Amino acid sequence: MALLLVGAFGWMTVAQSMSSVDADDLGFTLVDEHSVDVSFQVTGVQGKAVVCALEALDEEFGVVGWKIVEIEAGDSHSQARSVTIPTVSEATTGLVNACWVA
């Protein structure tokens, strides 16, 4: 019974790591008072589409814009992207909030 539990836990750990996605912020550029460009790199599951939630924040860390971006499956394990986020007021930063396998 203990061996079965250890095997099940091991498989859950491997299955979860096979579908995990990492996103690294590479930088941002304030385009104007109504948009910000966010550059990021996604490392995830090769051959599967990934979806990322991006945010633009103001100086008080309030969300002033956001965008959901789908990155189509590719042959590479990592993909770099630059995306423009529309904002309702001037942003002071842009970042990746989360990414997941679609």
Structure, explained:
The chain has a single domain, classed as Immunoglobulin-like. Strands 1-2-5 form a 3-stranded antiparallel sheet, with no helix packed on it. Strands 4-3-6 form a 3-stranded antiparallel sheet, with no helix packed on it. The protein has 102 residues and is of the alpha+beta class.
Order of helices and strands: HEEEEEE
CATH topology term: Immunoglobulin-like
Helix count?
A: 1
CATH-defined architecture: Sandwich
Number of domains: 1
Helical content stands at: 10-25%
Rg (C-alpha, Å):
17 Å
Task: Output the structural class.
Answer: alpha+beta
Write the layout of secondary structure elements.
Layout: H1 2-18, E1 22-32, E2 35-43, E3 50-57, E4 63-71, E5 78-86, E6 93-101
Antiparallel strand pairs: 1-2, 2-5, 3-4, 3-6
